[in-house]
Amino acid sequence: MAVYVINNMNIHDAGEYKTYVRAFMPTLEGFGGKVLAVQNAPEPVEGRWPYDRIVLLEFPSHELARQWVDSPAYQAIAGHRRAGVDSNVVMLDGLS
């Protein structure tokens, strides 16, 4: 079953975040991850949206998504994301 990772973020250090972004895509290799959508300043349809940016990823399974998050390659760059943005990250199971 597909799993989706959603990262809602506010960027406070663009340099740190750019370092993360430059190294991000190779970390998905081998885990079946895909970037489905990236949006700066998403337009709220209803309510207030307090984030600068949203990223939506898809993985073939929960196990592969966790393996990616825990992988040495991703962990090597994750500190740059944490230093550059305040994030709320969730993992959602797709519908079967």
From TrEMBL:
Transmembrane segments: none annotated. It comes from the Bacteria. InterPro entries: Dimeric_a/b-barrel, DUF1330. Residues 3-94 form the DUF1330 domain. This is DUF1330 domain-containing protein. It comes from Pelomonas candidula.
